[in-house]
Amino acid sequence: MRKYELVCVFQPDLDENALNALLEKVKGWISESGGSVDKVEMWGRRKLAYIIKKQREGQFVLMNVTMKPAATAGLERNLRYQEPIIRHMLSVVS
Question: Any idea what the CATH number is for the domain that residue 25 is in?
Fold first, then answer.
């Protein structure tokens, strides 16, 4: 098992219920692969450095995750196909 940081940028117009539902879906994917979500930080709405998918702002969420390295490809594939997620970055914590 390895520790990761997952930062997701969600569409700014998502309401709180939709955002929480998406977060639960992401947590479900992590737990299905045998991992665990250690901590979730809601960074809130922030201005993007440049326009992404016609959006100037995004809702940022940081998740500290523990999972197997082999499971990261499946998680990133699932994140890529979620339209409300503008960007994501999964990085190893050393």
Answer: 3.30.70.60
